[in-house]
Amino acid sequence: MIGVACPACNRGNRLGAGDRNLAKCGSCGERLFIKAPIDVDDAAFAAHLKFSSLPVLVDVWAQWCGPCRMMAPTFAAAAAKFEPNVRFLKLNADETRAPAELGVRGIPALILFHNGREVARQAGLMNGAQLETWLKSELASLPISENLS
User: Fold this and answer.
1) 35-140 has which CATH code?
2) Which among 74, 88, 112, 122 has the fewest CB atoms less than 10 Å away?
3) Active site residues
4) Can you tell me the distance from the alpha carbon of 51 to that of 40, in angstroms, rounded to the nearest whole number?
5) How far apart are CA 7 and CA 103, in angstroms?
């Protein structure tokens, strides 16, 4: 059974065998997959790591960071392509504690989590092809039974 946090209320949900793209939250009724990155605060970030058995890719960014703003459309395009097999989160380094707790030293930084644990990290600006190649490579190394790409 696959678990995922709701992007609207952060409650945990279990997904059945149906089309994940149509899945709705059992608590608030919102769609579980929106094919776009989700802006999260510390509490929402923790909920997604806690409830998701899917890989979770986090973009640590800041509004003042030019490379972060340049990478935002690339990250959004990847979310549209890889969801519902990967959850995409945006974590503002200036508004949350998590980046410091995770030891982020430079942004933009991408951190891939699986089952609540960090499994890969990449810092710096990437174009779409670089991001997709890096993500596919990292996903291939995860012990996951379902097809993720």
Assistant:
1) 3.40.30.10
2) 122
3) 65, 68
4) 14
5) 25
